[in-house]
Specification:
Layout lengths: L11 E3 L4 E3 L5 E7 L14 H13 L4 E5 L11 H18 L3 E5 L3 H10 L3 E4 L6 H10 L2 E5 L17 H18 L7 E4 L8 H9 L2 H4 L6 E2 L5 H7 L7 H13 L4 E4 L2 H14 L41
Parallel strand pairs: 3-4, 3-10, 4-5, 5-6, 6-7, 7-8, 9-10
Antiparallel strand pairs: 1-2
Length: 323
Amino acid sequence: MSMYLPPLRHPVHHFGHRSIDFSSSIALMAIINRTPDSFYDGGATFALQAAVDASLAAVDAGADWIDIGGVPFSPGPALSWQEEAQRVVPVISAVRAQSDAIISADTFLPEVARAAIEAGADVINDTTGLSNPELGRVVADAGVHLVLTHSLAAPRTVYPRPRYDDVVAEVAGYLRSKVELARSLGIADDKLIIDPGHDLNKNTLHTLALTSGFESFAALGYPALAAVSNKDFIGETLDLPKAERTAGSLAAAAMCIMNGARIIRMHNIPESASTVRLLEAAMGWREPAYLRHNMGDVNAPAHPENPGIAPAVPVAADADADA
């Protein structure tokens, strides 16, 4: 299987403190949920310092991007915008003061978006696909990025037994229409990112179809985000609890990347960074960290403490002399 190279309308995207060329790199987004009831970690990063520490640790482990949310997507009581902002804004401010990583606020409320942008957020990640057009106007006025995500339910409400005749085609059509809405609200074309919304108002069969058919979303020409980490479709497919879904998450992320995803949203950052770097190296976008295997006259024993082991060859060096 070859890697699909999407026809990006704007390959290079300029965020507040960092630029990414999506024609030759994959961005790794780390998930920080400042909620007491996060589906994955059960509130482990609800405390302010825990959220800040987890954000900075993710950057150190290889994350390019920190996604900070104060309200889960799952159904539940509404949270006032003031309380949601109190959860996310201090984390954004603290991380921005210590890192040039891309920061997004996971919110669908324009008031929270405005406060997050003022605190240093580069992106608003709206899992409701601009359910409130005023959010789009806030993004347009600030000149930041917007993630447009497919979902069907009104925010924090139940959507029983979602049905699709052709889930890939319908999600692609939805994203196309939301791009037009965002542009009509004044958001620049090079500030848009799309996300088909794995598991959001979709059953496992729907989400598996999105994963294998991800090329249809990447083909729209905007950087496409795959949020697959530890989700229910992985648990149901493999019969695994949340704590044991890392391998399945990495497999799903790799499949989406091969089908054109340019951003992956993940919990397990060290493992995800290794996945991204290996795929980038295989595509010729990144040099290996070093070269040793079959770079000398003989291969030394593999044991790292063996004194006869061949030295690593710097990638930048002319390796032909040792070939």
